[in-house]
Amino acid sequence: MNKLLLILLLSPTVFADNLVIEDFKNNRAQWDAVSDQVMGGLSEIKFTKLSDEDINFYRLEGEVSTKNNGGFIQFRSRVDAGSDDYEGVRIKTRGNGEVYEIHLRTPATFLPWQYYKATFTANDNWEILDIPFASFQRVGPAYVPRKVKSSKVNWIAVVAYGKDFYAEVDLAKIELY
Predict the structure, then answer these.
(1) DSSP assignment of 45-69, as one string?
(2) Within 10 A of 119 (CB to CB), how many other CB atoms are there?
(3) Sign of torsion over alpha carbons 70, 74, 80, 83
């Protein structure tokens, strides 16, 4: 009986932990801020670490412009999920009421225009949002697998994309659940 209990307690499929990517405490990611200026676009980006009422967070803000074939600002980090046990991405976020995207990349999405995306609205109060992997859509050619597998995720990004608008989105935590 004790051996069975020990096996159940140590089994990752029974008690799978979340993979915390950023929580401003024990888990810190290396974030890169990128705009469409890398390809000649005109979007303006500002990426800062801030605090508000004992909550640490990152803020991505700037003017997203579709002029000159542009239209995005983002911050991204490498991820090593290493497991298929995760069901999606969980974020603690707030913003200016606009729609933003989470982008995931895998070894199969090696070109800049290949990724998986899901959208969320960042409202003015802090919210915890669960975004299941099943809701991510493939962007790119047909040879990219339709569904993302958590074990293959090697990049994650928060993105303001696709229209002319002022972006302001805050991120206090991001994890795979």
Answers:
(1) -EEEEEEETTEEEEEEEEEE--GGG
(2) 15
(3) negative
Q: Give the 3-state secondary structure of residue 36.
A: helix
Helix H or strand E segment including 120? strand 115-121
**Model confidence over 71-101: pLDDT tens digits?**
999 999 999 998 999 999 999 999 999 999 9
In angstroms, how far apart are the furthest CA atoms of the chain? 67
Angle at the Cα of 156 (from 15 to 40), degrees rounded to 5?
175
Answering whether pTM is above 0.85, one says: yes
Distances (CA, A) of 100 to 75, 84, 93: 12, 25, 11
